[in-house]
Amino acid sequence: MRELRVVGLNVDGRRIICESDDSAKDMFSLRVDDRLRAAMRGDKVASNQTESDIEVQNVLRPKEIQAKIRAGASVEQLAEAAGVPVERVERFAHPVLLERARAAELATAAHPVLADGPAVLTLLETVTQALVARGLDPDSTAWDAWRNEDSRWTVQLAWKAGRSDNVAHFRYSPGAHGGTVAASDDAARQLINPDFSRPLRPVAAVPHLFDHHEPHEVQETPAAAVPDQFSRPAEPEPAPAPPAPAPKRSRKARPAVPAWEDVLLGVRSSGTQP
Fold first, then answer.
1. From CA 153, how far away is CA 144, in angstroms rounded?
2. pTM (two decimals)
3. Per-residue pLDDT tens over the stretch 113-157
4. Is the CB of residue 165 less than 8 Å from the CB of residue 147?
5. What are the C-alpha distances in Å from 66 to residues 91, 97, 217?
6. CB of 25 within 8 A of CB of 19?
7. Among candidates 179, 195, 198, which has minimal Cα distance to 126?
8. Beta bridge partners of 164
9. Whole-number Å distance between alpha carbons of 185 and 239
């Protein structure tokens, strides 16, 4: 390792000019930053930190970042509030995020507290049964947890029903046999209620909207009135027959007219006298 000898500062005073002790007399420039100042003070921890870590500490200390993440804040929220990239906050928040995920996992194995005491089923089993009974997908849920100011955990369950996003919150108390969870809001109380007849955030029925471009219904025409282009033309019906003429009366049917001599002699046409 070559040793350098300090010559002086540059014009702006932000860099130290050094040169080597060998015959080459190479010149070097060293920037003055917090790590160099920490090394001059003998602070080994600060001297090993990167520039991004020091920048985050000047805005928000690692303990403060972890405390806010443990209380429910997200990495994106802290990064936006501090005005730094997400990657610079994520490295401090990662251990706490794992702690929150572990607390949510333990809470799903706890037993919901009902009016008559803790339930036999776990929170995960109860919620799954409730969602399936209401026609929802239990695999589309998301669990999260954070620690409150009283050091107790709040567990959040998020799920989707149609196009609406829903959340339910529980208070988790670790203990024997997995601990217990109590409902914190109405959505949570409906989920752990054994009476599944009540709908959980029912979705209102959407009225049927008619398309204005939809063609109007065509009135059906009787089949007899619509000609079939694939069938033989119907033969015209025969004209009704004219009425038969009245039969002519035969001359024999007409009454016989007596002769004059029969009238004078008083003899009928049949030859008998009256």
1. 10
2. 0.53
3. 998 889 999 999 999 999 998 888 898 899 999 999 888 999 999
4. no
5. 10, 9, 67
6. yes
7. 195
8. 161
9. 87
Q: Tokens for 240? A: 């009704």
Residue closest to 19 by CA, chosen among 4, 41, 39: 4
Across 147-151, 179-183, 227-231, least confident range: 227-231
SS (H, E, C) the chain: CCCEEEEEECCCCCEEEEEECCCCCCEEEEECCHHHHHHHHCCHHHHCCCHHHHHHHHHCCHHHHHHHHHCCCCHHHHHHHHCCCHHHHHHHHHHHHHHHHHHHHHHHCCEEEECCEECCCCHHHHHHHHHHHCCCCHHHCEEEEEECCCCCEEEEEEEEECCEEEEEEEEEECCHHHCEEEECCHHHHHHHCCCCCCCCCCCCCCCCCCCCCCCCCCCCCCHHHCCCCCCCCCCCCCCCCCCCCCCCCCHHHCCCCCCHHHHHHCCCCCCCCC
CA–CA separation, 201 vs 190, rounded Å? 9
What six digits make up the tokens of 67? 């405390």
- Smallest CA-to-CA distance from 98 within 62, 56, 134, 66 is with 66
Provide the token pair at 115: 């009016």
Tens digit of pLDDT for each residue in 194-227?
Answer: 765 555 554 444 555 444 555 455 455 444 444 4
CB 72 within 8 A of CB 113: no
Do 168 and 156 touch, CB atoms closer than 8 A? yes
Residue type, 207: P
Q: Are 173 and 184 in contact (CB under 8 A)?
A: no
